Amino acid sequence: MIRIAAIVVTHRADALLARCLATLAAQERLPDEVVVVVSGPRAEVDLGGLAGAGIPARVLQLPHNPGYAAACHVGADASTGELLLLNDDTELQPGCIAALARAWTGPAHVYQPRIRLAGDPSRLDNVGHGLFPDGACWALGRNGPDGVPASPPGAFSGAAVLVPREAWRATGGYDRRYGAWAEDLDLSLRLLRRGVTVLPVPEAIVHHHLGASHGRTGADKLRALERNRTRAALRSLPWTLVAALPATTTARYALAGALALAGRGPGDGVPPDSRRAAIHGMLEGMLEAPTWLAERARDRAGWTLGERETLRAMWERRARWEDLCRPAP
Q1: Pick from 161, 162, 50, 28: which is nearest to 98 by CA?
Q2: Residue 80 burial (10 A CB sphere; 0-12, 13-18, 19+)
Q3: If phi over 0 gives left and psi between -120 and 50 gives alpha, with beta otherwise, what is residue 135?
Q4: 74 and 34 share a domain?
Q5: Are 141 and 269 spatial neighbours (Cβ–Cβ below 8 Å)?
Q6: Where is the domain boundary, 162, 185, 208?
Q7: Does a structural domain hold residue 52?
Q8: What's the domain count of the chain?
């Protein structure tokens, strides 16, 4: 029987967090402990429901907001067991943790629940993410009918995921320098290089209030996403794809723009200032290339997949056309 520590990071500690904690307390297979990390203004967090269910729980109040990645580390360091990382805008459905525990086969995988859109649970948020050649990703099945995409995910969704502590320690977990956004993509790519893949667990169902914490298309968010995506690409992609980054990123931007004209895909609804911010973020990441290529050199000692194997794995886990062509939720 594995030990599962649920780590919930919040910066508002509002009604969304209360619902998240209530769904943890209602699980048939309870988490072995819960750590709530408050990354923002001091807030009162009601742990009564968890205590009533007999779950050891505590709140860690940070003096300032160090970013989501760093806040996750605070929770991981304060807990024991495998890491069930949760955004505060998620709600675990009955049997979720039990399904994750049944699926557990060890640290060769990261375990991805099936995440539905909370506003319309008949539609998917994702079951992990498919990859683009420039390291970007897009949610598998997003806004499609509830089900399980046939494609294996190349990256997990940081909204809700079970990460083996051994894999977390071996890689150093989320890179704190990312702050928030794309820290899950970066860790996914670093784990893929080590042969650790994302295993979908469709019986483990989570409802996600997509964009409730930070919105979906704000300029600051897209700037950070593209900066961090570029960092992750330089650090972990095969050299052929690193060399092709200017071309593949330009092609992805063009595809997103073309789909947006039809009211579809990842570019739909993105305002012009956010599009410009995304380009600025990509350029910031490229200017940091010496830093991330140095990290790449350090990471190589733990890689088990070579260039061809990684290219093959990325192709098998690519973003799917049918997902790109759906309207945004």
Answers
A1: 28
A2: exposed
A3: left
A4: yes
A5: no
A6: 208
A7: yes
A8: 2
- Closest by CA position to 116, among listed 98, 99, 141, 83: 141
Can you give the CATH number for the domain in which 27 is found? Answer: 3.90.550.10
Q: Which residues pair with 7 in a beta bridge?
A: 35, 85
Residues 196 and 237 in one domain: no
Same-domain check for residues 265 and 168 = no
**Domain final position from 162, 187, 208:** 208
Domain range enclosing 294: 219-324
- The single-letter DSSP state of residue 182 is S
In contact, 274 and 222? CB cutoff 8 Å: yes
The pLDDT score that the predictor gives to residue 329 is 73
Both tokens of residue 152? 């294996």
What are residue 3's phi and psi, to 5 degrees? -100, 130
Instruction: Please give the backbone phi and psi of residue 270, each rounded to the nearest 5 degrees, phi first.
Output: -85, 120
Amino acid type, 12? R
pLDDT at 228 over 80: yes
Residues 6+ apart with CB under 8 A from 247: none
The model's confidence at residue 217, banded by pLDDT at 50, 70 and 90, is low
What is the signed CA dihedral for 136, 139, 142, 148, rounded to 10 degrees?
140
Q: What is the mean pLDDT of residues 218-222?
A: 86
pLDDT tens digit string along 106-127?
999 999 999 999 989 999 999 9
pLDDT tens for residues 171-208? 999 999 998 889 999 999 999 999 999 999 999 999 99
pLDDT, tens digit, for every residue of 281-300? 999 999 999 999 999 999 99
- Residues 166 and 235 both lie in one domain: no
Residue in the block written with tokens 């071996």: 170
pLDDT at 213 over 70: no
